[in-house]
Write a sequence for this structure.
């Protein structure tokens, strides 16, 4: 039996320990929902991110740029310039073994271009190094062995920032998954993972 492993699941797990104290219970419940594959409709912030990402993809074709009247449009155009000519929503998977379990790492890359993985982030507040502890670049660089670096393209709808991680400075995804499994075992949640995350691949 193989089990699916995604960066969104790992991110949901890690967020419990990185969020501010006022949101600890909410973060834990969100993780349990993710673990149990309970669908939650996107909140306003997530929906704005989805809409912004859609705008970026639209503007990768210069023919679609007919209006530059807002900061958000300008920001989307700036990000589109980075990924123009790349492969969008590229799906990658890889089977690995961690703690005796066969896992299928699975990711949908926003863009892959010339050996660089790009991910679009929309956030109301950005500080340098915001994504340093994210499991996303360790997992995606594991998925794409020929990629030399991972770049987060970040915007608040006005400004655009880039956050780059080379392969050499990126930690392995294996210890992150091992810590996740240790947490599941300690919380008596390992069986939930095995029941809900069986892989079809």
């Amino acid at each position: 039996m193989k089990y699916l492993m995604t960066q969104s699941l790992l991110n949901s797990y890690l967020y419990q320990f990185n969020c501010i104290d006022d949101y600890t219970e909410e973060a834990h419940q969100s993780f349990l929902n993710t673990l149990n594959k309970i669908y939650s409709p996107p909140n306003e912030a997530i929906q704005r991110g989805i809409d912004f990402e859609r705008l970026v993809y639209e503007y990768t074709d210069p023919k679609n740029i007919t209006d530059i009247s807002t900061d958000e449009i300008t920001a989307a155009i700036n990000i589109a310039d980075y990924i123009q000519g790349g492969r969008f929503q590229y799906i990658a998977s890889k089977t690995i073994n961690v703690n005796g379990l066969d896992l299928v790492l699975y990711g949908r890359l926003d863009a892959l271009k010339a050996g660089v993985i790009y991910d679009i982030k929309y956030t109301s507040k950005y500080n340098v190094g915001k994504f340093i502890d994210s499991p996303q670049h360790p997992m995606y660089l594991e998925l794409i062995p020929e990629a030399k670096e991972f770049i987060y393209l970040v915007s608040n709808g006005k400004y655009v920032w880039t956050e780059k991680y080379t392969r050499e400075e990126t930690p392995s995804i294996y210890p992150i998954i091992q810590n996740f499994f240790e947490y599941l075992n300690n919380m008596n949640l390992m069986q939930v993972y095995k029941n809900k995350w069986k892989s079809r691949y």
Q: What stands out?
A: The chain has one domain: 2-196. The first helix runs from residue 7 to 18.
